[in-house]
Amino acid sequence: MTLIATRQSVLDRVRTHRAMTPFLALDTGRVIESYHRLLDAVPGGEIYYAVKANSHKAVLSVLAAQGSGFDVASLTELEKALALGVSPERIIGSNPIKNEKFLRRAHEAGIYAVVADSTDEVEKIARFAPGMRVYIRLAVDNSGAVFPLDKKFGVSHEQAIEELLLARNLGLQPIGLAFHVGSQCVTVRNWIMALRSCGAIWHEAAQYGIHLTFLDMGGGYPIPTDETVATFGEIGEAISDAIAEFIPETPGLRVIMEPGRAMVGDNGVLVLTVEGRAQRGEKTWLYLDSGVFNGMGEILEGSTYPIFADTDAPATHTYTLAGPSCDSFDTIARDVDLPEMQIGDRLYFTNAGAYTIEYGSNFNGFAIPEVEILE
Amino acid sequence: MTLIATRQSVLDRVRTHRAMTPFLALDTGRVIESYHRLLDAVPGGEIYYAVKANSHKAVLSVLAAQGSGFDVASLTELEKALALGVSPERIIGSNPIKNEKFLRRAHEAGIYAVVADSTDEVEKIARFAPGMRVYIRLAVDNSGAVFPLDKKFGVSHEQAIEELLLARNLGLQPIGLAFHVGSQCVTVRNWIMALRSCGAIWHEAAQYGIHLTFLDMGGGYPIPTDETVATFGEIGEAISDAIAEFIPETPGLRVIMEPGRAMVGDNGVLVLTVEGRAQRGEKTWLYLDSGVFNGMGEILEGSTYPIFADTDAPATHTYTLAGPSCDSFDTIARDVDLPEMQIGDRLYFTNAGAYTIEYGSNFNGFAIPEVEILE
Predict the structure, then answer these.
(1) ipTM score here?
(2) Is the pLDDT of residue B8 over 80?
(3) What's the CATH class of domain A265-373?
(4) How far apart are CA A154 and CA B280, in angstroms?
């Protein structure tokens, strides 16, 4: 397993961090670096961090200090962003379904805009957040993404036009379009195709007198899990070219990105301890103090984490790794090559900064890992 | 969808319970009934409720009042049981992997016994809980279970004998055997086969002077999701016959059951509200105020919940149901036939008493449903 994503220096620092396991070590300095790397890759772009990836206060604080905006999906996330002192203008609501409480609070607080992708939603926004800016989410191809999000959200070209017109008729301010290429999208093709779709709607809307300026490209910017994954630079270049081609000459155009995983994924390491060991037929099992239920829930969606021991000593054993619960779905990884492990040894799960503590439950009475900030 | 499992009367009472959704309505009166139905089905048997299925205080309290014992898997679960005033003698630790803290506390509190299924674990118990009673968990066939648990836990016949001998040599009290046929096990065959395996080890252990008396048959007792599922009565009869055949003439034999789902599964109903609605191609989606991440995580393991609307009016529409988060894994069910649903209408997910709030996380800032007790 190579260290493409989580750099050696992070791992080295985590290995000497002596907190009680299980914990999630976060390198907030590198979160800042990731923020600027993505921002620099898309000239003129703006970042609205997707709070759902990791809503820990330390992450939100460092991003707010860099000037990041925030994409919030629920009342809890909205209140977290507001509590940090983030300007409401720097908050958007990109969850296509929002309840009355959220909309009333968003309207009262004066957040910049919210998304819609159904007639019911446009009507709900008009009712509970009258006059608000809205943007319409399109359904786009997610086939290049590790975690596709299509089908659940997004409208067709025709429906996008209908919703924009409905929004205007109901007194809302239709300002733009949004899409999501899928989480951990490894190819630039998805962005190009999505921007082509946006361009067509953009021009048709103008014919109806609706001049869009807000282009929300969602998340999906990948962490570099291997050499084939598109880099921020490649994605940025493709995006810039596609915008120039499909959405030229838009005065006041705002290009929004909503990265989640890309800001925190490879800047977090889950540190666990071996609590049990058993030989089961040909397999040697190690039982750890946290698992699928307490933080590594993305495993059930097909995710994997590069795993390291306390040293870089050569691997001499092959293990099956499991979490602490009585549930057999709580099996973390199979056939993992490692140095020989004893009860009490620690293991390091890299690329674990996003969708870990957020997915975590206390099933079977085992705690969600605490966050430790690497200074 | 028929109401085999959750009886009409429960649903009727939940429909008139006006708490704010999302909530999990629990019928604790029926928990008591389930307890006695299983107990009556296995003459001479004892129940140690598997706390992991639903650790809500109301559930633990009514079971404790009936005289139930408790199977705890973690320090948190142990402290919950002790805090209720349950006698430590009525607590066992059937998680095959236990950490130092749990073992020290279990020993100090004087719980009745703990399980082991590896050499490392027997040594750990001897070190942190010297002199304790131990029972050894066997690997048994889980092929008749909806949620198989094999592979992660359990030893072979030969290793069981080794661990019993090791336990004795290390000053522990080897008292018995345990197995688990798999969660929601729908056929009696698994219990019969497992008891046959137990019998063989039981007799061999006696030849070494280890006279076992503690037979822990674990959980897996199914809730009646359809007519093909074995009833408590059928399972109890098969168990009694198998014990008489394979483990005859054991003075002081204790027959332990560790039901979790069977005590609470069909006595709980998740009540959610429709917050959004969208037409996506041919499909109509309803978005609810709780979903896969907040309580219905077993869906990712293949579970389903019989779903009902506010009335028993004929189904006229087909819906896709999704939870409130931005994540497309948060899709609850597809092609559900229901009366026409509007935003604000409630839906009832039956058979939801077990592994729902326990699996729940706050992902995306959405809360785990609160528990409401149906008096």
Answers:
(1) 0.94
(2) no
(3) mainly beta
(4) 8
